[in-house]
Design a protein that fits this description.
elongated; 2 helices; alpha+beta
Amino acid sequence: MNPIVSAIISSIIDSILESAMTPAPVVPPGAPPGVVRPALQNGPLAVMGPPSNGQAQFGDQTLRLSASLQIRDTQNRIVMSGSLQQPVPVLYKIDEYGSVQRVWVLTQEEAEVADQLIKQKAATQK
């Protein structure tokens, strides 16, 4: 076998074995439980109704959805807007045109923690 190919294969195997033995990162003890997504510290918090015709209800507002809309579910996976069939707690981000650009669907625990973080942030900015 070619020594270069052998060295490359050996390097790949070593890297796989090393990554398998490395423990998963631990959340720092000061982090609130349930908050692992950085987006949960920003943005308006609302209950979003199912999207329809390029719009969705966010609390008491009906907002237009951006063509580049990205919705992330509770496991941070990107989902299609049609998969949301009932109202869910979300954090969202508005683009420069006033359309909803990003939506993060929250678990109940995340919604409570996000609400506390947003209130703390607002209190420190006053």
